[in-house]
Design brief:
Elements: E1 18-20, E2 29-33, E3 39-43, E4 47-53, E5 58-63, E6 66-73, H1 76-83, E7 87-91, H2 97-105, E8 110-118
Length: 119
């Protein structure tokens, strides 16, 4: 576990969809963890544009030479933390539809899919 992210015992008020930096105010990168176990990093210094699109149910991040789309529910809090450079990790989950609805009903963020494209 990188020291810049909270430990497993750290309380995360946002639930399990993402983790914020706990030991420093501004982060250097977002670690995207895919359901398959693959991980990719987007440096905050490479982040050119961010968009929250509630109609699409997604956050679109455009970096230098890449685009990351985060699909899910209740993502506005995640978006706001990304633009403040506070998110250290985004975790993709593939749960049954009723599990996603339960999480959404509680108002918690849920990341159901991450798409990474090279531009």
């Amino acid at each position: 576990m990188r020291r810049s992210l909270g430990s497993e015992n750290t309380v995360n008020p946002t639930g399990g969809a993402f983790r914020v930096f706990s030991q420093r105010k501004i982060g250097y990168a977002i670690d995207f963890q895919f359901e398959s176990g693959m991980r990719r990093m987007l440096s905050y210094s490479d982040l050119v544009e961010a968009e929250y699109n509630p109609d699409l149910g997604a956050i679109l991040l455009e970096g230098i030479g890449k685009r990351v789309t985060i699909y899910g529910v209740n993502l506005i809090g995640l978006y706001e933390l990304i633009i403040d450079h506070e998110v250290g990790q985004v975790i993709e989950r593939h749960e049954a539809e009723h599990m996603m609805e339960t999480v959404a009903g509680r108002g918690e963020p849920y990341v159901r899919q991450l798409d990474w494209e090279k531009l």
